[in-house]
Design goal:
Blueprint: H1 7-19, H2 22-29, H3 33-47, E1 52-54, E2 59-61, H4 63-90, E3 95-101, H5 103-106, H6 109-120, E4 124-130, H7 133-142, E5 147-150, E6 159-174, E7 185-186, E8 195-198, H8 203-214, E9 221-225, H9 228-236, E10 241-245, E11 257-263, E12 268-276, H10 283-304
Parallel strand pairs: 3-4, 3-5, 7-11, 8-9, 8-10
Antiparallel strand pairs: 1-2, 5-12, 6-10, 6-11, 6-12
Helix pairs in contact: 1-2, 1-3, 1-4, 2-3, 6-10
Length: 305
């Protein structure tokens, strides 16, 4: 069935509900009351069912109207937000890009890309939702974020997952640690090492335990924290070493922490972009997404060199 209606028809429906009156809604929309009534009649005719029950004093939703109300509100909100974002971007007056990302995927890398983007578009603001894997996926699926950076995106039915890079797990230890002298470290070398890790509910921990379990490797976690970034504080204090994804480690020469590849076996996670299924990004978010992919691919080439 083909339904013909305009966004103004949907806006009229929502405004009538908010104000509870045709006359007040017509005044707010700056149209005549007969014109507003015609819009509602056209919308109901297009749907083939009444949406409102009118009395001399009240306007109430019909059964079908109650069912459609949340969907219509979402459509109107999405249209107005997208229109405002496009308008702001076209005038170079501002805009907001919201990203839902797992902290370990963006702790060091994301600020560098944002800095480069701000040099091109200084009026665009950023909102970063640093969430664990599953909540970050949900934020993208609900539309709370424009897109996300995650490592389990393919497991959610309402988002798409575009792989970008493989992010291996490495060892971070104090420069005076016994393992700091090794060029490469085997997982078996960690059996008697005090380790700092995240709790079992973490996506990184579950991924690591699953992969190491296949190889019958069991680590001793002397300390558990909520976020891997906190584990680096323990490493700096010399309390233990930490196993964490390479993207979560300090970049460049750190005065206290050194990182070592972990081998036998090589364990890694796949980092990628998470986007709503059939969703379309506003221009500011689309441009940042493209820059993020370009920068990430460049970083991959640098690390491989």
């Amino acid at each position: 069935m083909r339904i013909n209606c305009e966004i103004l028809d949907l806006k009229a429906f929502v405004t009538i509900l908010d104000l509870g009156s045709f006359s007040r809604a017509a005044e707010q929309l700056n149209i005549s009351q007969p014109a507003l009534s015609r819009r509602m009649r056209a919308l109901e005719a297009s749907l083939g069912t009444p949406l409102l029950e009118r009395t001399t004093r009240h306007v109430r939703l019909s059964t079908v109207g109650r069912t459609l109300e949340p969907f219509v509100r979402r459509m109107v909100d999405d249209f107005e937000e997208t229109f405002a974002a496009v308008s702001e971007f076209g005038q170079q007056t501002g805009g907001v890009v919201t990203i839902a990302c797992v902290p370990t995927a963006a702790f060091y890398f994301l600020p560098r890309v944002i800095s480069a983007y701000n040099q091109l578009f200084p009026d665009i603001r950023f909102r970063i939702l640093d969430l664990s894997a599953d909540p970050a996926l949900d934020a993208v699926a609900r539309g709370d974020a424009d897109f996300g950076v995650n490592f389990v995106g393919a497991s959610h039915e309402y988002v798409t997952f575009t792989p970008l890079i493989d992010d291996p797990f490495v060892l971070a230890c104090h420069r005076n640690h016994a393992l700091a002298r090794k060029r490469k470290v085997r997982w078996s070398d960690l059996e008697k090492t005090a380790l700092v890790g995240v709790g079992r509910a973490s996506g990184n921990r579950m991924l690591l335990d699953s992969m190491l379990g296949r190889h019958k490797i069991h680590l001793k976690w002397s300390y558990e924290v909520n976020h891997l970034s906190m584990s680096l504080g323990f490493v700096e204090a010399g309390l233990g070493a930490s196993v964490l994804p390479r993207l979560a480690t300090p970049q460049g020469n750190h005065p206290l922490i050194v990182t070592k590849p972990l081998t036998d076996p090589l364990v890694s996670r796949t980092i990628g972009l998470v986007e709503r299924l059939h969703g379309r990004l506003a221009p500011p978010a689309q441009r940042f997404r493209d820059l993020l992919v370009e920068s990430w691919q460049g970083q991959t080439g640098e690390r491989a060199a």
